[in-house]
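Suppose a colleague, Dr. K., hands you the sequence of a protein chain of 152 amino acids and asks what its three-dimensional shape might be. Before reaching for any lab equipment, you can write down a predicted structure in token form. Begin with the sequence itself:
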Amino acid sequence: MITITIPEQVLPLLREVYANKLNATSRGARYAMNTKKRAFKEAVRVASTVEGEPVQGPNITAIYRFVLPRCDLDAPLKSVQDAIESIGIACRDDRVIRTASIFLFRPKKATKKRAGRSPGVTVYLFNTTTEKPMILSKTFHLLDESAEAWGD
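The predicted structure, expressed as tokens, is then:
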């Protein structure tokens, strides 16, 4: 298992890549988006906190925990996946991610009764074959957090 935590200071670069206009008609627009995407990937590589070793194997499970203000669920996913593949996957190819779960939370300030959530992105990568109990444990934990966050 590996945990990659992308800090809040990198999120403005992620927002620039949200649009993912790599299929833009203008060559200049494509170059600009590619430059932004490379900048985001480099910032993730430099600023992220990594715990664990890159996951090996042909079958990997990814669990994404996004704490982002006002974005679609799928908007940051591919950008984050591209950015973490060189850090978290031993073969450096995100095609080995066969299973994924995404948890989306909104940031909020702490109150006397509840803990706050700071903006950020955390990615957990597991070898699906050998780490099933850890996958289920992390999923249950995030499901509980989701139920509390969204008021269920």
